[in-house]
Structure formats: C-alpha cells, structure tokens
Write a structure and sequence with these properties.
Layout lengths: L10 E2 L3 E5 L5 H9 L17 H13 L4 E7 L4 E9 L7 E9 L7 H17 L4 E7 L3 H10 L2 E11 L5 E10 L3 H12 L1
Parallel strand pairs: 5-6
Antiparallel strand pairs: 1-2, 2-3, 3-4, 4-5, 6-8, 7-8
C-alpha cells in the first residue's frame, strides 16, 4: 500500500538515524550549525543559531500542509545531531518530490553521513512512497554539492536561470538533477557499495 504524501517516519541505518524534525531539536541544531559556521557560505541558505527556531517553525508549518517533511540527522558513532535534510516540493498529483535543504556540521561532511542519509531517503521514496522521480537542486556555484549529487548517480536535468534571490541579494541559477524509478536499483547498489 502506498502512503503518499510522506508522513513523519524514523529512518535508521548503520551510521545515521533520521528523525522527524521537532522544536525539541532546537539546541542540538544550534550546536550543529556552529561546527563550520555554515550560514557564512554565501551560496547556501543555512540558518544561523539565532534564526534556527524560526527555521524549524517554518519547516513544521510546511509539514502541516504536506509541502515538506524535515528530518534531523543523528550520527550513531557519538550520538550527536549533525544536521538536517528534508523531502520538499512534494507534488500532490504526481509521486515526485525533492530531497534538499540539506546541511551537515563540518565534522560530518565528506563522511558516510551524507551517503547513508541519501540511501535511506531514496530507499523510502522509491520503495515505500513509490515515487516516480526524486529531484535534487543546488546553487550553480555550490561545486561540492554538485559533485556529491552526481556521485549519487543523479543526472542533470538542466539549469533554472535567475531562479532564486539569495539572502545576500545575489541571484541564484539553480542546477536541477533527478533519479527516476527505473534508475533506482542501480543507484541503490552503488550507494550500498560506497558504504561498504
């Protein structure tokens, strides 16, 4: 039975646990975002510690309208919360959504954390929610994010020019990638191999 749109769920892997984002996670996320001062990256929209509560409120409001479903990421090796990710731009009439608004503490970057988070989210999207496509979007200048998305096995769909206005006033070109349902079995094997 298909349960769509996505509802709050806990996803557990070998390295990470993803829990539905709640206001009680505020102090943990405020601490996590300090590791690397992530909000200072001009091409991202990561909340500051002071703005984190409003950021969580907005995410929960979107969840109540079935527009997005946010998660906090807990690293199992030390029990620390190291970031957040979400299903977003959830389409109501087509089982298609985006994985995005992802950020991790500097100490969790370039580790197995992102790979396993994506494996868990993609697995749930394709195998439980029966999505026909999962999308990823990033700033054209976010080279590290683009490399990470390509390593997942996602294919570039194109560039949305003058797509967003960033908090600093610059205009963002957004690179769009996707994985479609027929590609998922191969992408899954690749992600499992990378984690082994």
């Amino acid at each position: 039975m298909i349960s769509y749109p996505p509802q709050p769920v806990t996803l557990v892997g070998k390295y990470v646990e993803l829990y539905p984002l709640r206001q009680e996670h505020l102090p943990f996320l405020q601490e996590a975002v300090l590791d690397g001062r992530l909000w200072e990256l001009w091409f991202t929209t990561v909340p500051t510690p002071d703005n984190m509560s409003k950021w969580i409120e907005k995410a929960l409001d979107e969840e109540s309208r079935n527009e997005s479903l946010s998660f906090v990421v807990k690293r199992k090796s030390d029990g620390k919360f190291v970031g957040s990710t979400r299903y977003m731009n959830i389409e109501k009439d087509v089982r298609r959504l985006e994985i995005g608004s992802t950020w991790y503490s500097k100490s969790a970057q370039k580790t197995e954390v992102n790979t396993e988070c994506k494996l868990l989210l993609l697995d749930h999207a394709f195998e439980n929610l029966k999505c026909i496509a999962v999308e990823f979007r990033t700033h054209i200048f976010n080279v590290e994010s683009r490399k990470a998305i390509q390593k997942l096995g996602a294919k570039e769909d194109g560039i949305l020019r003058n797509h967003r206005i960033m908090p600093n006033g610059t205009i963002r070109d957004t690179v769009v990638y996707s994985i479609i349902e027929t590609e998922w079995p191969t992408v899954k094997i690749n992600l499992q191999y990378r984690l082994s």
